[in-house]
Prior knowledge:
By secondary structure, chain A is an alpha+beta fold. Chain A contains five helices and five strands, in the order ββαβββαααα. Chain A has helices at residues 26-33, 89-96, 106-119, 125-131, 143-157, and strands at residues 4-11, 14-21, 52-55, 58-61, 74-76. In chain A, strands 2-1-5-3-4 form a five-stranded mixed sheet, with helices on both faces. In chain A, a hairpin with a 2-residue loop joins strand 1 and strand 2. In chain A, helix 2 packs across helix 5 (143-157). Chain B is of the alpha+beta class. In chain B, the strands form four sheets. In chain B, strands 4-5-10-6-7 form a five-stranded antiparallel sheet. A three-stranded parallel sheet of chain B has the order 1-3-2, covered by helices on one side. In chain B, strands 11-12-13 form a three-stranded antiparallel sheet. Chain B starts with 6 loop residues before the first strand and ends with a helix. At the A-B interface, strand 4 and helix 3 of A face helix 2 and helix 6 of B.
Amino acid sequence: MADTRTIAVTINGKPHTATIETRMTLVDFLRHELKLTGTHVGCEHGVCGACTVLVNGISARACLMLAVQCDSQQVTTVESLATDGKLNVLQQAFQDNHGLQCGFCTPGMLMTLTEFLRDKPDPTVAEVREALSGNLCRCTGYQGIVDAALDAAKKLREGAR
Amino acid sequence: MKPAPFTYHDPRSLGDATALLAQHENARVLAGGQSLMPMMNFRYAMPDHLIDLNKVDELAYIRIEDNALKIGAMTRQRDIEFSADIGEHCPLLQAALAHVGHRQTRNRGTLGGSLCHQDPSAELVNIAALLGATMHAASTRGERDIPFAEFAVAYMTTALEPDEMLTAVTFPLPQKNCGHAFVEFARRHGDFAIVACSALIGLDAKGHIAEAAIALSGLSHAPVRPAEIEQALLGQKPGADAFKAAAAEAEKLDAGADAYITSSYRQHLARVLTYRALEQAAAQANEMQHG
């Protein structure tokens, strides 16, 4: 018999209860059970960063956590960023600065930067690059992403929402 | 579903965790999951029982006591990176941590997880070797202390018995007047190093080397402490001559090869990085002495 548990987890502020196999990763839980397919899954061994989400506000690889470990925790995904179809400041900065092309890595980039800009509102270029070192992009060459991060940081410091 | 089926356990105390380990065959403890989870996703590791330590709160702490730094095995790398106490008493550990993986992996990854995974080029493993850490292990049979030199027994294999787990690590603090350095060469920032070198240098009142420690990772299954090179530095004037001689000896150390990196290239890196580490550590020691 499969080993299962019932978990209660808050995703983007909304409570969910589900009975899952204990071996199910968090990213598979988000995508397959909750149909929250904004979180992408790439390498599945913690290298590419596409599945980055926030667990209790702290960034983590959703492919390296089990869904059962998120029982009673708060998970934040890329779906939380836009409001009523309107991009938030960081997302808009990605669009304005060519921060994405195919878009596969973007959810992970956005979640990493959501945490990073919250902790460091006025980062240097080097700090942005270091923060992004755990997220791989094969399209942009990163420059557009770095520009987007700095642009978003500036607008957020000026009070944009 | 990526990992093979297992039975999940989430004990709340060390006693419960060791009881589960003693009770079950083919059980693995799960710490931050930054090494074991990839291995399970690939099905390199297929434990029948997974004992998740993330709710064993008593295993996460940072304490400075009796000239030593004691860190619980489940302490997150992030908490070590940002600990003001460690920044004051053992900044070397934070210098090494800056090279460990990425923000997201340090958020979850633990000290104990890295040391038990025992990747030969892992930065925390290197520091445990340099400082001569003591590994504290527990099982239902009792507790025991294992000197780090006896902890790494083979490639990615520790001295822990199947029913034992790491509970904490004690790092003897370097002398207050020691300069330190951690340098490595990796293909990209955050990758595992090809070769890494850490060093401690302490100077006497005349400015001569009174203390020297070197740990080189990436040459073999565990970091190497080249005792003869360390000894030869004692009493010398810190500078290019002494460090070049030490680096030349480091190049003669045995080094393994794999499909990507030859042993001679690792030896070349051992020379270059030994020189850089000694130079940086000595410069820092000199600055501490003269302000």
